[in-house]
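Fold this sequence, please.
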Amino acid sequence: MMENNFLVGVRRMKFGLRLIGYLGSSRDLVRFSKLAEDAGFDSVWFPHDTFMHNTWVLTTAAAEATSRIKIATVGTNPFTTNPCEVATYAATLDDLSDGRFILSLGLHTEKMVEWTGIDASDYMGCTREAVDIVRALLRGETVDYSGKHFDWTEQCYMRMPIRRPDLPIYVSPFGQDFLELSGEIGDGSLPMITPPEAANYMVTNIRRGIERAGRDASKFVISGCAWLSLSESRQQAADIMRKMVAYFGPYLEEPALNSIGLSTSDMRPLADMIASGNEAEAWKSVTPEMIRLGITGTPNDVIEQVELLAAAGVDEVSFGGPLGPDPEKAIALMGEKVIPYFHD
């Protein structure tokens, strides 16, 4: 049995649940959002990934299925989604959810956007412009804007009531410069803390942006996006993490991989196998070292890894990925054994 968290000096941690399409049907994902609320999670997040379940539909359904938990997006990108659509979506969902919505703009890789033939190389500049535009629209301003990526006229303004002009906008970044930018322009940042050992790298760069902008760090939220596989059985938890690592591991950045002795060259064969349709071979090729990209194991194992994230300066852990061999059981275990450790 682990010591009480107050005795070892661990601060309170917030918890989010990040729901991706691999976990089940659209109805399953909405049902999981209600289970997360019942288990004591603070927020539920839906990634805005290319060619996957539509984030706007799922967040709307989740808002109707819940009453307390925050509803949020991860990485709504300004390339495939114009800021005018983003602003009206955010304002509408915030009204529908009684002020529970968090918007995230940005992306964790430009590669998936570029599948569509869109040049996403200036992802930082485009995200900066989109954040500026959406903020202005939510404040009720006329956005007669001329930038590199968006050129709008005086007809660009919201034609609907805005519940919260200061609706929080987090930035989903990757890479040192983008991490710094998230600290400069966001109300929060959603870095990928995969592996957990990369948290120090992520937090240091985000804080550098906060400091450069002269902002109050105490009002900024670092919500680290981790992969979770939780089970009473360590082996079962590790086995189920393989698919996540094989599919998404090749998109992780070099400094994050380096924190546990891996590199992008180690991950490249997995991407080649997935691209050729040999998914089963990719899963088998995931090594024990690669399993460490996620937070994997028993409730006590998860608690120990979350303690390290708290010590690194992460304010909230947004758990996504497989969740565990049984996602419903994993959500329940979080509510029974992990969340209370950091909240009680």
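The mean pLDDT is 95. The chain has one domain: 22-226+300-318+327-343.
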